[in-house]
Amino acid sequence: MQDRLKELQQEALGKIEVANELKMLNDIRVEYLGKKGPITEVLKGMGKLSAEERPLIGAIANEVRGAIQEKLETKMADVERAAIEKKLEAEAIDVTLPGRPVAVGNHHPLTAVVEKIEDFFLGLGFEIVEGPEVEKDYYNFEALNLPKGHPARDMQDTFYITEDMLLRTHTSSVQARTMELEKGKPIKIICPGKVYRRDDDDATHSHQFMQTEGLVIEEITDENIGMSNLKGILDAFAKEMFGEDREIRLRPSFFPFTEPSVEIDTSCMKCGGCGCNICKGTGWIEILGAGMVHPNVLEMAGYDPKKYRGYAFGIGQERIAMLAYGVDDIRHFYTNDVRFLQQFKQL
Ligand code: 2NL
């Protein structure tokens, strides 16, 4: 019996030695020290022993049990420590690694341009007015001296929704609404916003683009507004957008809503006027259209053209952005390729 106990001890200690998981150690505990284990079995047979042998075997049995117990505990502590060490090693953080950059967005170039345009005109005392993109034929055409049958109203050029509802083709419609509301009062506004034309998209055309139109109306006095005021404002505008060295020139043109009408060129921002690929050798680049408000337009909105006078201009935001940032295809503004957009972080 004594030998059997010693044998069990050797066997258990050997198994504990090679065990390397908590579960294995627990199984060994159950196997050797559990109620159905061999040591318990040995102790159950003690009844058959003599009175002298019994305490001796009992002591050895306790010793064996104690030895197994102790070895189990130390081994369990070892295994646990090893597990923690392994986990710490696996989760180690290399604090010397470079950080991951946080993606920060930036203004869209068209937004940057409209904000710059707005700031410029706000500084001159203009107010910003917005209006609907789905517009009545009346405000988009009729009120702007574009009567029915005028070629610019062609179905080819305009997205009609019904016979007299359409997607506005310019933000002049907002100005026509403002004139009707203010009837007889001076006006000094800009109207930025999206406009729509039935164009096939290519490098310089988009069926949807952005415009900022401006309108100033004042009562006629001896010294106030005429073509020279318009010229002064747009000269300052060209310098603000394209640099202090810019000059402008006015070329006669035609718009149904202005008389006289002009197109405004700025001296080339790339070559300064010597002639290059951007200005096609002319030294000048067209930036916007403008003119004195046509008397018919004033009259239709309830202003007496003998007492009131006005000037107006229309700025294409994409055109300004393309020239200011050297973008060669209008579609870049709408395809939202981040590689394109991220080049405008400094704006
Ligand atoms: C262009 C030309 C222009 C206007 C827009 C306007 C508005 C009213 C009355 C008179 Cl309410 N005129 N707007 C005038 C001249 C030119 O835009 O080429 N824009 C990109």
Automatic annotation (TrEMBL):
One of its GO terms (biological process) is phenylalanyl-tRNA aminoacylation. GO terms for cellular component: cytoplasm. It comes from the Bacteria. GO terms for molecular function: ATP binding; catalytic activity, acting on a protein; magnesium ion binding; phenylalanine-tRNA ligase activity; transferase activity; tRNA binding. Its EC number is 6.1.1.20. Binds 2 magnesium ions per tetramer. Residues 111-343 form the Aminoacyl-transfer RNA synthetases class-II family profile domain. This is Phenylalanine--tRNA ligase alpha subunit. The lineage of its organism: Bacteria, Bacillati, Bacillota, Bacilli, Bacillales.
